[in-house]
Amino acid sequence: MTRLLAWVVTNLDAFIGLVLALTVAVLGLTNDAVSQEVVNSAILLVLGLLAQAVLRDRLRRRTTEREIRQVIVDTRDRLTELVPQMREITGPEGALNRAREAIDSVSMVRVLHGSEVGQALAEARRHTDQWSFKGGTGTFLRAVTLPDCLEHARRRNATLTVAIEIIDPTDEEVCERYARFRRSLDPDAPGEPWTVDRTRKESYATVLAACWHLQRSGLLTVDVRLSAQMTTFRYDLSSSCVVVTQENPQTPALRIDRGEVYYNRFNIELDYSRRQSRRVPIEAAAQVKLDDEPSVEQVRRLFTALGLTLPRSFGDREVADIIGKAVQARNPYS
Predict the structure, then answer these.
(1) Which residues of 312-327 are buried (b: 16+ CB within 10 A; e: fewer)?
(2) Whole-angstrom Cα distance, residue 298 to residue 317?
(3) Residue 202, exposed/middle/buried by CB under 10 A (0-12, 13-18, 19+)?
């Protein structure tokens, strides 16, 4: 009822015309006494009310159009004022673009903890046809990475290219720096202490392991470089990702998948780093045949052929130690 009354009030002129027209029509049908003059007057009154309603609607329409135009003008002026501010937000150097780049850079890099590091490296070894390593002495490389990658390549009947960069065992200064660094990580760690001699033997063992595997696999291509600079990080780059770790296994690692910008940049970084390091003429290793368990004499002749003269202080016991580290290498983190 309330809605009906509201509608009547809003359309009062039209409602009066409608009632008047119906009244006259009913009287004309039921009462012959209604004269023609009355009917004509009623018609004129209805037409007047109709004309008034039309004029009122036109007036309302014009008022509405003026209000709409004013709103459009106000909106245009307001948007004009906002354009410089929007450019600051959405432009090439705007806050929105910077935020997007920040989000993208975060998504490029995954932080790995604990067992995730070993799982990421194992996954990377499973299907790769290349491996680039840069680090200290390459203990984990010769114990796990190289034999595991070769086994997967053999199963796939595929080739494997390995690039290795470790510290130069003939450079006593860099070996001393590295040994001091490793001792500083955990001075009370059990097992063999990190000394200059141990650092040298670990690096020599990695070179020997590369030559030993090379003679036993026709699928393997190896490039070994020796650096006079030590790094506190280890870089393992495969066909699918690059994993950056540190000597302390408790430290979180970083993983960047192939296709991300920083994967390519790390690839370039490792390539240029190798170019600045001393190349080991690995092809000369073919001059010395290595047994399944190389002899001390074979290893001495191998390093002579490679131009890596062993220190005078290294007797047969030290050379045998190098052989054990190379051929029977243990996972240092198992």
Answers:
(1) eebeeebbebbbebbb
(2) 14
(3) buried
Q: Where are the domains of the chain?
A: 2-75, 109-327
Structure tokens at 320: 């045998």
User: Which pair of structure tokens corresponds to residue 108?
Assistant: 């490029």
Nearest to residue 141, comparing CAs of 47, 67, 214, 235? 235
The Cα–Cα gap between 229 and 227 comes to 5
d(CA 319, CA 333): 24
Locate 126 and state its tokens.
């499973």
Q: Mapping DSSP to helix (H, G, I), strand (E, B) and coil, where does residue 165 land?
A: strand
Collect the ranges in the chain with pLDDT lower than 50. Answer: 104
220 is written with which tokens?
């393997």
Q: What is the pLDDT of residues 207-242, one digit of tens each?
A: 999 999 999 999 999 999 999 999 999 999 999 999
Read off the DSSP letter of residue 247.
Answer: S
Residue 247 CB contacts under 8 Å (≥ 6 apart), including other chains = 136, 182, 185, 232, 234
Q: Which residues pair with 163 in a beta bridge?
A: 132, 223
Measured at the CA of 131, the angle between CA 128 and CA 132, to 5 degrees, comes to 155
Question: Per CATH, the architecture of 109-327 is what?
Answer: 2-Layer Sandwich (3.30)
The predicted structure's pLDDT at residue 330 = 85
Strands 278-279 and 220-227: antiparallel
Q: What is each CA distance from 224 to 209, 233, 307, in whole angstroms?
A: 11, 18, 13
CA dist., res. 266 & res. 254, Å (int): 12
Which amino acid is it at 324? G
One-letter amino acid at 52 equals Q
pTM of the model: 0.69
How many C-beta neighbours within 10 Å does residue 77 have? 10
Predicted confidence at residue 155, as pLDDT, reads 94
Q: Any residues with CB less than 8 A from the CB of 273 and at least 6 apart, and which? A: 134, 165, 227
**Hey, what are 253's tokens?**
């690692």
